Amino acid sequence: MVKIGLCYNWKNYEAIKVAKQAGIEYLEAGFGSFWDCSDDEFKGLVSTLNEISLPCLNYNCMLPGDRLRVVGNNVSIEALKDYFLLLTDKLSVFDGRRVVFGSGGARAPRGEVSNDQAFLQITSYLKEVVAPIFKDRGWECVIEPLSECEVIKTIADGFRLVRETSEKQVRLLIDFYHAMANGEDVGNLTDYKGVLTHVHVASLNGRYYPKRGDGTDYELIFRALKDIDYQGNVSIEAKLKEGEDFNKAITEAVICLKDARLKVYGY
C-alpha cells in the first residue's frame, strides 16, 4: 500500500501530533539530526510516536554537509563508517530502514574536484561505506537527484548512480518538485520500475504544501507511479508560505494527495 507521510522536524512534537490528526500515515525524520541530539529529545520523540501510533518509516538529510563530506579533499571514510554504525544502532527502535541521500552540501564539488571526479567519489562512498553497513543491518539508501546540485541533478543521473554502484542497498528516489523544476518527463517512469523505492512531493509553484488547484498534477504523479506498480511511500517535503498556518496547510495537503491516490489506486 502506498502511504502518505511528512518530512518534518521531529523535535516539534506538537506539530507531529497535528499532522497525525490531519491524516499523515508516517513520519520522515532527518537522519543526521539524530547524531548529537539529547537523550531527552530522543525519548520525547519515541514517547510522542507511541502515544499517537505514528510510525517513523523514512529518513531524509543523510549527511550534515558542513561536518561530513563525501566529495572533495576532506573525506574521512572512518568517520563516515562510525556515523552510520552509531545512527543505525540508535534508530533501530523505529520501523524505518530507508535513508534518503540528498545532502547537497556533502556531495557538492565546491571547486575542489571536477563533476566527474565527484561522481566517482560518491560512487566509492556508496560502495565502500553505505552498502556494506546497510546490507549487514537491513537498511536501504535512496539516491535523491536535486535540481540545484551540480552532481546528480536529474532522475537519469540518479539512475546512473544506482547502476554504477550496483548494490541492492542503493535504490532511487524521485522528488517530483525537483524533477518538474528540471523540466523532466514525470508521466513515464517505465525505465525506473523496480529501482524507484521512494518519492517526495511538493507544489511545483514554490515548493509549498500541496493543495487542490495549485497547478501541480498530483493525479499524473500517482498514475505514473501506478503504471510501474509502485508500492513505496510518498512523503510531503514542502515549506509553508509566509504567514500560512501549518494545521491548515497539512490538512489541505493530505486531502489533496489522498484524493489523487484514491482516484488512481482506489484507496
Question: How would you describe this protein?
Answer:
- There is one protein chain.
- The chain is an alpha/beta fold.
- It has one domain: Divalent-metal-dependent TIM barrel enzymes (TIM Barrel, Alpha-Beta Barrel), CATH 3.20.20.150.
- It is built from nine helices and eight strands.
- The chain has helices spanning 13-22, 39-52, 77-90, 104-107, 115-137, 155-165, 176-181, 218-227, 246-265, and strands spanning 4-7, 26-30, 56-60, 98-101, 140-143, 170-175, 196-201, 233-236.
- The chain has an eight-stranded parallel barrel with strand order 1-2-3-4-5-6-7-8, surrounded by four helices.
- Helix 6 links the parallel strand 5 (140-143) and strand 6.
Key features of this structure:
globular; TIM Barrel; 42% helix; alpha/beta; eight-stranded parallel barrel; 267 residues
Condensed summary:
By secondary structure, the protein is an alpha/beta fold.
N- and C-termini, Cα separation: 9 Å
Q: Which architecture name does CATH use?
A: Alpha-Beta Barrel
Total helices: the number is: 9
Number of domains: 1
Which strand-content bin applies to the residues?
5-15%
Task: Please compute the radius of gyration using only Cα atoms.
Answer: 18 Å
As for the CATH topology, it is TIM Barrel
Q: Find the structural class using helix and strand composition.
A: alpha/beta
Q: Topology, please?
A:
Blueprint: E1 4-7, H1 13-22, E2 26-30, H2 39-52, E3 56-60, H3 77-90, E4 98-101, H4 104-107, H5 115-137, E5 140-143, H6 155-165, E6 170-175, H7 176-181, E7 196-201, H8 218-227, E8 233-236, H9 246-265
Parallel strand pairs: 1-2, 1-8, 2-3, 3-4, 4-5, 5-6, 6-7, 7-8
Helix pairs in contact: 1-2, 1-9, 3-5, 8-9
